[in-house]
Amino acid sequence: MGGMTLRKILIHPDPRLKATADPIVSVDKDLRALADDMLETMYDAPGIGLAAPQIGVLQRMFVMDCVKEEGATPEPMVLINPEIIAASEARNIYDEGCLSIPDQYAEVERPAVVKMQWTDLDGKIVQEEFDGLWATCAQHELDHLNGTLFIDHLKPLKRQMITRKMQKLKRELAREAKNG
Length: 180
Ligand code: NI
Fold this sequence. Notes:
Radius of gyration: 16 Å
Strand order of the largest sheet: 1-2-3-6-7
Order of helices and strands: HEEEEEEEHH
Helix content: 25-40%
Bound molecules: nickel (II) ion
Distance between the termini: 31 Å
């Protein structure tokens, strides 16, 4: 059987979530195993996107699947060294959340359509245009590779409020872990 492992998702604030991730130099067996773990962890959470830094791996890769309808065929995607090569002037606002910032949501405005280029798990260069939720998700995940969280797009006061809630949550989680 495949050796997929659920990884622990880091909770903000954490210096690893603020770091710039390194480019990936070779697409090999280890990287494919990491991608499998990330998809497993994302679906389990559940979430629609997960970037490698969120599990403490500072490499430029993220996974996403924005198919949310019950019973629909999943569309798992793995993007290695992704970059935006074109973005629409038209913008879209989504109520965003993040697995590293549980239960907090806020509206973020981003380009409505983006064309991205990345390397796939076969080492091939791929280009695709994303719109709707896929475009928002792809940009949110790409942000993670540059140490940017969705709350960094908010006004400072709102960002500080959410960060304080997360600090409190982390203290509670640490206490629970200590008390078993
Ligand atoms: Ni996120």
